[in-house]
Amino acid sequence: MNSLPIDKIKEMKNEITRFMMMYRFAISEIETKIDILKDEFHFLHDYNPIENSISRVKSPESIMKKLYRKGGDLSLQYIKENIKDIAGIRITCSFVSDIYRICDLLQKQSDLKIIEVKDYIKNPKPNGYKSLHVIVEVPVFMSHGQEDVCVEIQIRTIAMDFWASLEHKIYYKFNKEVPLSFLEELKEAADSAALLDAKMERLHHEVNAIKHEKED
Ligand code: GTP
Ligand code: MG
Fold it and tell me: Per the UniProt record, which residue ranges are transmembrane (predicted)?
């Protein structure tokens, strides 16, 4: 069997390392944008629409699994063009209106290109899943030049996030074959979370209105 020359292996290893680094840099760019929005909002309105944000870069193992599931070339170029959630950021907000506000503010940034918006809040998944998914492309400047890198941003309320994390655990606990009774209860829980979101948002507006009346 012919073995790959050591230089070729080193070159491939470097290429993969730089590929993964590119996604970390893309996340840093978006995180900086989120931090700026947070700080400015706090300064201007004494209020923070972003409760929390977490990010992750998909592991090479998960990338390969997805590639295998979806089919496709085993090339970095193909992976970059077809797997758009290698870099992911999840933002949690207190209120549904904040979700759209954040999305709107990101859309207005001239260096971000919006590739896709999936609104699972207006159109929830049949299981009750709600979240706003935005895939953006952000320029990353590397030593060899500019790379436009996709980042999947999931924006949801704390209640939606609570539901999604439990649903995710249940889904894997039952090896993706969740019994009907659990599915029904999860759907009910999603509806309760939506009611809670609506109620909290209404209360928030009422409190704000009273605060403004007092200020006038
Ligand atoms: P993927 O191939 O998994 O990326 O699916 P897709 O391309 O159809 O994307 P979609 O926007 O539907 O979902 C992407 C991500 O959203 C998933 O990887 C999860 O993090 C999250 N997600 C989507 N649906 C659900 C769901 O029903 N429950 C939970 N807990 N998370 C979900
Ligand atoms: Mg995904």
Answer: none
Q: Which ligand is nearest to the CA of 67?
A: 1
Ligand 1 closest atom vs CA 70: 2
Kindly list the protein residues whose Cβ atom lies closer than 6 A to any atom of ligand 1: 85, 118, 125, 127, 129, 133, 164, 167-168
How is residue 108 annotated by DSSP?
A: T
Q: Which residue's CA lies nearest to atom 29 of ligand 1?
A: 164
| Number of neighbouring beta carbons within 10 Å of residue 8 | 10
3-state secondary structure of 199: helix
Residues contacting residue 174 through CB under 8 Å, at least 6 positions apart: 182
In DSSP terms, 117 is beta-bridged to: 134
Q: What residues are annotated to the active site?
A: 152
Please write the tens of the pLDDT for every residue from 75-94: 999 999 999 999 999 999 99
- Give me the sign of the Cα torsion angle 32, 143, 57, 106: positive
**Is this complex's ipTM strictly greater than 0.90?**
yes
